Amino acid sequence: MGKPKHKILLLADLKTPVEDILKSTVSLAKIIHADIELFHVKQLTDIVKRESQLSAMRTLNETHSKTDKKLLSLIEPISKTYNVTINYNYVFGNVKTEIDNYIEAQKPDIVVLGKRNKLFNPLGNNITDFVLKQFKGTVIIANNNNLIDFEKGFNFGVFNVTNEFQNQMFIKDLMAYINKPLKSFQIAGEDTEKIKHENDVVEHIFDQGNNVIKNISNYLLKSNINLLCVERDTNNSSKTSIKDIVSNLNVPLFITGNRNYYTS
After folding, report:
1. Which range has the worst mean pLDDT, 11-20, 91-100, 237-246?
2. How far is CA 51 from the centre of its chain?
3. Other residues' Cβ atoms within 10 Å of the Cβ of residue 166
4. Tens-digit pLDDT profile for residues 25-64
5. Are residues 190 and 240 in the same domain?
6. Least confident of 104-113, 147-156, 184-193
7. Is residue 36 one of the residues assigned to a domain?
8. Taxonomically, which superkingdom (predicted)?
9. CA–CA distance, 207 with 108 (Å, rounded to integer)
10. Residues 177 and 123 in one domain
11. For residue 77, is the peptide bond before it cis, meaning its omega torsion is within 30 degrees of 0?
12. Is residue 147 part of a domain?
């Protein structure tokens, strides 16, 4: 009997390209043995304006057909190339409400979503901030221009983490595929630990200052970091907040889940 499968939920918008995010999700699913579900929400008020009931029904039917075709045209080539099943679903309604309900019903282990400028990802309306607040599992914030082929090896970094991050769900799976050494990025004076790992760890420590996050972001890009692990906010006010990290670090992020989420 194979390993039990996990669930990855990809929240996708169709206004911006998501092909590379989907490919990265497929690659991740292969190494953690997960099923993939792509979920799309279209704001109902963006579809139906002030129209008659008959006209509104016609518009809804046309939008259903166009949305389904667009999702299939995105999914089918990738599913065929990677030989994996990619399930999908979509609804029309309030974006935050529908996402919250879907996460509650599906109970994924990982939620993947795209990122645009600062906290505004392609889904808009601060959905990144909303998902991080509502969902207590692992969240991956991906970039469509940064395809990650996990099976071929990738550059993995950690930011201001404690050694506890190594006990997180999926971290050991990821560690088996990283390009060594593991790179640790820290801000001097913040409550972190020297990372202990069986592989080599290269530490980069940055002095505190007004531009420290910007400096780290630039260094991450120069270091070709494909994925950066960040721990969830703690009550420790000395640590840089998740909101600041998501807003200012322009690399894909692996934000750890609450351990109780996976044991409840």
Report:
1. 237-246
2. 37
3. 17
4. 999 999 999 999 999 998 887 777 766 777 778 888 888 9
5. yes
6. 184-193
7. yes
8. Bacteria
9. 38
10. no
11. no
12. no
pLDDT of residue 83: 94
Q: Which residues are 6's β-sheet partners? A: 34
In contact, 225 and 183? CB cutoff 8 Å: yes
Query: What is the CB neighbour count within 10 angstroms for residue 102?
Result: 18
Residues spanned by the domain of 217: 153-263
Q: List, for residues 117-171, the tens digit of each pLDDT value.
A: 444 344 444 888 899 999 999 999 998 778 899 989 999 999 988 777 788 889 9
Looking at the structure, tell me whether residues 127 and 187 fall in a common domain: no
The answer to whether position 105 is within a domain reads yes
The total of structural domains in the chain comes to: 2
Q: Do 37 and 138 fall into the same domain? A: yes
Distance CA 264, CA 262 (A): 6
Dist CA 82 CA 85 (whole Å): 9
Same domain for 36 and 119, yes or no, is yes
Average the pLDDT over 212-235 and give the result: 86
DSSP symbols for 131-172: HHHH--SEEEEE-TT----GGG-B-EEEES--GGGGGSTTHH
Asked if residue 30 is part of any domain, the answer here is yes
Q: What residue type is assigned to position 56 of the chain? A: A
Handedness of CA 221, 223, 225, 231 (dihedral sign): negative
Judgement on whether residues 197 and 175 belong to the same structural domain of the protein? yes
Residue ending a domain, among 92, 111, 142, is: 142
